[in-house]
Specification:
The complex is a heterodimer of chains A (about 800) and B (about 210). Chain A is an alpha/beta fold and about 800 residues long. Chain A contains 28 helices and 27 strands. Among the domains of chain A are: about 180 residues, Dimethylsulfoxide Reductase, domain 2, CATH 3.40.228; about 120 residues, Barwin-like endoglucanases (Beta Barrel). In chain A, α10 crosses α14 and α13 crosses α14. The longest helix of chain B is centred in the first third of the chain and has 10 residues. Chain B has a domain of about 140 residues: Alpha-Beta Plaits (2-Layer Sandwich), CATH 3.30.70.20. Chain B has 7 helices and 12 strands. By secondary structure, chain B is of the alpha+beta class. Chains A and B meet through β4, α8, α9 and α27 of A and α1, β3, β4, β5 and α5 of B.
Chain lengths: ~800, ~210
């Protein structure tokens, strides 16, 4: 279809990727934007239907419109509502959800500092403006401005060239969670590349590799979480390595825990750091050595079993593998779950004394917590994600599922089965509903191993986690990185990654599509400037949990030459003759309408039309949860009639599937404490005696928001160190210190805090890599210190397993 | 119409997330360095070594989110050489910018760090309790923002009768000095002698 001349009256088919507007809308638009012509879709429905005399629903304050919209969907875990004050096309202020009520069933979706400070990101002087082509060495950050035509011609020709020379499996559109709002984000590029023959696929994630892989071995599903409003029915809640108040694990999770405390629940935080959640919510903080959680969990099981606190009836009816009476066929004489705990096979009873030496939690405390967890009835043991992003992270996932099972805290209100806990009954939100289609390339790799696929793709096979084919047929040759800072910054071992990417004989072409010159963008050959969420349409339906849809109407024009990811892909599609297939002739707004329809046909049958929600300034649509769903309720009531999708149909404390893999030292059939490959107990501790973690900082969403001035003011990037470790090294608060191991060096200011256990330092993750001329990072990108080594079963990132030393500079 | 507007702050459940601080900055459009509301991170207690490399925590921590306490006996008002500071009929302490000469006497006097010099205008500036929002029946920006819902405003006497009051926790000075219109719910630990320290000083210092 040829290009149509832009018309003011509503055409049958949209011009380019913009929506047609009818004349009335155009007039309203002009009022709002001071007369500028809008290219893609207006929010102007918000003005309301002025001519029909209906009540003024939209707030105005003089010449300022107040528009309710979702907070831009980065990967924070929140799905909140903001109120944007828009004057002359500029956002002048941001408020948050203020719907009356704010009940447990339907609470306000209040944004955090990342949403509240968004103007400082939206109007940041460093936003990319034009397409850029590399002129210096790769990674030098030297670019020249080029036109969009030149830029997209270049990208198209490179994709064509690599396709023809090597094949589609040499192309990577890497993992990226920069945007979930449908129109901006990786999914737009995934859709296009799938129409062009596909690209190397990948599975699992940086967030949840171990927990998403391992949970189904126990439960046969990932849907193991009750709806969060059920937490108020719990008597005892362990927040194990879980910090929702800071990283926002679903809007309001911390609010729900607060409500649970009001109803009498006792809350314990087990974490190497006294996190924000621990300060706000814990009745008790138990510091634990990173990477040793399974030791404590095993010792808890020891106390529970030897003191007869386990739920024998539930174990008998609903589990297998607990003891000799319930082992799967062919494994009758193998080490059972309780064999491991009691030490009947390996001669090491996992007593609290045994665990104490490993995890640093006193035996007394371990026993006390074990008793409290088993007897409170019901109890929640919530497993956070930090402890599974570690060496052998699969073990802590499984151990954290077995404890609820043996204490009968599964399938009941106020209990919690553990694991990844996608929300019952339907698994929770879509997250991304924009259709990416089918990838014609069958080969997939674990998401974390893309640097391997550059170096030795053709040698990678099943042992390296290759799936879908037996061997890869290509090394990666082209990377098209969209809404992602994975290349440099978020992937492990920054220095090694940089070295790999710098070599143009390996990856021959790198394009990065983003809003800022991120460390990944610095390594691109071509940089494409993307508009922000406020400059296009979008919507989302929750994050992991959630019974809300947040809508983001377009508030402003994309500035300079920025475009949405969708528009960039549409124009690229044009060059391959697949524009119509890609766009389905939908404008950006029409895609959002399409998404609303999807929601209506599935999780939100009563959601109003986009027109109505826009016109009435909803900002979001929520479903009150007054009867929270309970995972495994039917299974618990009748396990024979409602079997789990495990081989036995029951909860597998012993997994024959894992047993049959034949790797008992790294993939045991029952959850085991395995000393990490970099640990305080290994030889490496002589040179590198401190453990380093990189927690999810309030100031950022991973690496998004870094550089926003109000956020840096509130939470400056620091390495956090205990006064005992600092004193030993002559370090004072605010000193610039050197943190290093064999993989790299960081020099950055420190903050002395007693809120982290001695022996552990914390460098909040996501800060943008800033190497000086000696290659020392000056900002604190924790991945300078992390390793590319992956976990044995999930092939997951073990990015928190780091040993370092620290020195005064 | 309140006799004395006051803040209620539940320090026992404040996470220190600073959404209150940012919400205020956004409303006022304050540059980096100027914050009407600060969040103090307080910690006390000791670590106890157990054996070779095991540790037991005796650490306690809480946060204090504070702007201006609209004191019943405001020392800033008494110290202003130009009479630029006044209390309105609802107890809100305000600055008449026309009379202010930016001398900072009020800042020196205030024990709560409530006064700040706005470098752009050259005038002293502080929390105005979102007097414009109150007039519309809206909550102040910080109160409406808080994800943990630990901030409230109300009539001082009503807040005092509804909530336990412990506004003398570290680092707050004795309430007798200026009679802050502030009701704080403190953690039990906060009431103990624990060698408390502000551990985020660089985040709360005036630029």
């Amino acid at each position: 279809m040829g290009k149509q001349k832009k018309k003011v009256s509503k055409p049958n088919k949209p011009d380019e990727v913009s929506t047609g507007m009818d004349r009335r809308d155009f007039i309203k638009l002009s009022i709002l934007l001071g007369g500028g012509v809008f290219l893609s879709g207006g929010l102007l429905g918000c003005v309301g239907n002025l001519s029909d005399g209906s009540a003024e629903i939209i707030e105005t304050k003089g010449d300022t419109m107040i528009i309710r919209a979702g907070c831009p969907g980065h990967n924070c875990g929140g799905r909140c509502i903001l109120k944007f004050h828009v004057k002359d096309g500029t956002v002048t202020r941001i408020e948050t959800d203020d719907r009356p009520g704010d009940t447990l069933e339907d609470p306000q979706l209040r944004a955090c500092i990342r949403g509240r400070s968004y103007r400082r990101r939206q109007y940041h002087p460093d936003r990319l403006k034009y397409p850029l082509k590399r002129v210096g060495e790769r990674g030098s950050g030297e670019f020249e401005k080029i036109s969009w035509d030149e830029a997209l011609d270049l990208l198209a020709s490179e994709i064509k060239r690599v396709k023809e020379k090597y094949g589609n499996s040499a192309i990577l559109v890497p993992y990226g969670t920069g945007s979930y709002n449908q129109i901006n984000g990786r999914q737009t590029a995934a859709r296009l590349i799938n129409l062009l023959g596909g690209s190397l696929g990948f599975y699992n994630s940086y967030s949840w590799a171990c927990i998403s892989k391992a949970t189904p071995y126990v439960y046969g599903t990932s849907v193991t979480g009750n709806q969060r409003q059920d937490w108020v029915n719990s008597k005892f809640i362990i927040m194990w390595g879980w910090n929702p108040a800071e990283m926002r694990d679903g809007t309001n999770s911390e609010f729900f825990i607060k409500k649970a405390r009001e109803r009498g629940a006792r809350v314990v935080c087990i974490d190497p750091r006294m996190s924000m959640s621990a300060v706000a919510l814990a009745d008790e903080w138990i510091p634990i050595r990173p990477g040793t959680d399974v030791a404590m969990m095993s010792a808890m099981a020891y106390t529970i079993i030897t003191e007869n606190l386990h739920d024998k009836d539930f174990i008998k009816r609903c589990c297998v593998g607990f003891d000799k009476t319930q082992m799967p066929k062919g494994c009758e004489d193998e080490e059972t779950y309780s064999d491991y705990i009691l030490g009947t096979h390996d001669g090491i009873p996992k007593t609290a004394e045994w665990a104490e030496k490993i995890c640093s939690v006193s035996a007394q405390t371990i026993r006390r917590i074990a008793r409290e967890y088993a007897t409170s009835k019901p109890s929640v043991l919530y497993q956070g994600y930090g402890m599974q992003r570690r060496a052998y992270g699969e073990q802590v996932v499984i151990a954290g599922c077995c404890l609820p099972a043996i204490t009968g805290n599964v399938g009941i209100s106020g209990g919690w089965a553990g694991g990844i806990a996608l929300q019952a009954d339907d698994g929770g939100p879509f997250w991304n509903v924009f259709p990416t289609g089918r990838n014609p390339v069958k080969a997939t790799i674990p998401v974390f191993l893309w640097t391997e696929a550059i170096l030795r793709g053709k040698e990678m096979d099943l042992e390296d986690g290759v799936r879908g084919v037996e061997k890869l047929d290509n090394n990666l040759k082209l990377i098209w990185c969209v809404a992602s800072n994975i290349l440099i910054n978020q992937h492990a071992d920054t220095n090694r990654s940089a070295k790999i990417l710098k070599d143009e004989s390996l990856v021959e072409f790198i394009a990065v599509q983003d809003q800022f010159m991120t460390p990944s963008a610095k390594y691109a050959d071509l940089v494409l400037p993307v508009c922000t969420q406020m400059e296009t349409w979008g919507l989302q339906d929750g994050w992991k949990y959630g019974d809300e849809v947040i809508i983001m109407p377009q508030l402003a024009q994309p500035p300079h030459e920025t475009k949405s990811d969708y528009q960039i892909c549409a124009e690229l599609a044009e060059r391959f003759g697949v524009r119509e297939e890609f766009t389905q002739n939908r404008s950006e707004r029409e895609w959002i309408e399409w998404a609303v329809e999807r929601y209506r046909n599935t999780r939100f049958p009563d959601i109003p039309s986009l027109d109505k929600m826009e016109k009435d300034n909803w900002g979001g649509y929520t479903k009150a949860v007054d009867k929270p769903a309970i995972a495994f309720r039917e299974f618990r009531a009748n396990p024979d009639k409602n079997p789990l999708r495990t081989p036995s149909g029951k909860i597998e404390l012993f997994s024959k599937t894992l047993f049959d893999m034949g790797k008992p030292n790294t993939i045991p059939a029952v959850p085991k404490y395995i000393q990490e490959w970099e640990s305080p107990f290994g030889e490496e501790a002589k040179r590198f005696p401190l453990q380093a973690v990189g927690h999810h900082y309030m100031a950022r969403v991973h690496s998004t928001h870094d550089g926003v001035d109000w956020l840096e003011e509130a939470f400056p990037q620091r390495v956090f160190i205990n006064p005992i470790d600092a004193k030993k090294r002559g370090i004072y608060d605010g000193d610039e210190i050197l943190i290093y191991n064999d993989r790299g060096k960081i020099a950055m200011p420190c903050r002395i805090t007693p809120k982290i256990m001695p022996g552990v330092i914390d460098i909040p993750q996501g800060a943008w890599w800033k190497p000086d001329k000696n290659g020392i990072d000056r900002r604190g990108n924790v991945n300078v210190l992390t390793s590319h080594r992956w976990t044995p079963l999930a092939y997951g990132n073990a990015q928190h397993t780091i040993m370092v030393e620290v020195e005064k500079i | 119409m309140a006799k004395q507007w006051a803040f209620y702050f539940d320090s026992s459940q404040c996470s220190g997330c600073k959404t209150c601080q940012i919400a205020c900055k956004d409303k006022q459009d304050h540059a980096v360095g100027l914050r009407w509301r600060n969040v103090y991170e307080v910690a006390g207690g000791h670590w106890e070594a157990k054996g070779d490399s095991n540790w037991e925590s005796g650490i306690e921590s809480y946060n204090i989110s504070m702007s201006c306490n609209h004191c019943e006996d405001p020392i800033c008002m008494k110290n202003c050489p130009n009479g630029a500071i006044y209390k309105n009929e609802e107890g809100i302490v305000l600055i008449d910018a026309d009379r202010c000469m930016g001398c900072k006497y009020c800042q020196w006097a205030c024990p709560y760090g409530a006064l700040h010099l706005n470098k752009q205008t050259g005038k002293m500036t502080k929390c105005d309790l979102c007097i414009d929002y109150l007039a519309e029946g809206k909550q102040p920006s910080c109160v409406a923002a808080c994800p943990m819902r630990v901030l409230k405003v109300g009539e001082l006497s009503e807040l005092r009768s509804e909530f336990d009051d412990w506004e003398n926790i570290y680092p707050l000075p004795s309430a007798h000095i200026t009679k802050p219109s502030l009701v704080i719910k403190a953690k039990e630990a906060a009431k103990k002698e624990m060698n408390w320290k502000i551990i985020n000083r660089e985040e709360v210092r005036d630029a």
